[in-house]
Structures are given as structure tokens and as C-alpha cells.
Batch of 2 targets.
Target 1
Amino acid sequence: MKLTTLDIIKLLPFEENYKRSLIDAFDSLSEDQRYEVTELVWSTYGALYRIKYNANMEKALSEIADQRITLGNDFYKKIKEKTDQDMDKLESQQSTPINLDQTRQELQNILNRSKN
């Protein structure tokens, strides 16, 4: 699946009203502001992806150690596929252990500059 910045905004675990306001304002932002929002959104998505990937890797390695699964040629491919599935489900999750307050504040600061 090919993702856009707006797709990622929809996936990130922000409140629905905040997502909508960010999406609605995106096209009216200056080029510099859109760049900043894009960089921040993709960076946040990448960080969430790495967290999920590492968690899936740790779980799989634990299962190998406990001999519940075996290490095959497609081990890393399965970890990536599981992580991709987890990221697709991110939007529907009600809560996340990841604090996105700083990201939200930075995005809000960018949006506020467009109103000045």
C-alpha cells in the first residue's frame, strides 16, 4: 500500500476532531508549513513503525527461544508483514502506549502560524 501524508494523518492515534482539522488545513498551508507537517508526520509514523517492528521481533525471538516457532527463511518477511498489519490497524485502536503530545503540539504550532 502506498501511503501519503494525509493517509498517515488518518492512521496516527490522534483524536478524530484533531485529525479532521489537520487534514482540512493541510492544503491551505504554505509550502514551508506543508513540508514541516509532512516531515513531522512521516517521522512520527517511522518511529511508531520501528516500535511495533521491534516489539514483533522480540515476541518472535521469545517464541523461538521457547520453541513455539522455528526460524525459517521467511522469518524477517513475516515480522515485516505482521508489523505492516499492526500499522494498518493503528487507526482503529482506541488507545496507544505512545505519547504523541509533543508531535501534536508541534503540528498545532505549524497550523497556528498559518492563521497569523
Note: The chain is about 70% helix and 0% strand.
Target 2
Amino acid sequence: MVSGEDDELKAAYADLGKVLEQERRAVATATLLGVEQAKAGMEEVKKEAKDTHAHVKEGLEIGGRVEHNTAILVSEVQKLRLESERMEKLWQGRTPLVGVIKFY
């Protein structure tokens, strides 16, 4: 080491540089692979979320129609009940026509 250079040390330093470069490439490749996998996973999650949203929206629409139809049904049943009560009051104390009128 008279001149400040040692061939063995130079070779070891060069080998260290090569190993560090290989490690850097391996880390970069692993990072890129991880990012690509995460991206693919996020696309799948996004698709599932979109599908779920569509199903929920469809369910809400069906629920709204069922609610509307139920309200109509309740209204019609109420009308029938009122008409039935009216007819009952009208026929109170009268002879029912059933059995009196002969059907031919």
C-alpha cells in the first residue's frame, strides 16, 4: 500500500459495487411487481364495488316500486272496506236477496 492502492481492495470494492447494483435491481423489480399486483387488486376491488353499487341501486328501485304498489294496494283495500261497511249498513234489517232470486 505504498502508492495508496491495493489490488485486492480494489477488486473487493468492485465486487461490492456489482452486488449492490444487483440488489438495487432486485429491489426495483420486486417493487414494480408489488405495484403491478396492487394495481390489479385495486382494479378488481373497483369492479366489485361498481357491481355492488349496481345491485344496491337495483334493489332500491325495486323497493321503491314495491312500496308504491303496496300503498296503492292499501288504498284499494281501504276503499273496499269502506264500501263493504256501507253495503252492510244499507242491508241491515233487510232480507238478503240470496236464495230469494232464482238464477236460471
Note: The chain has a mean pLDDT of 88.
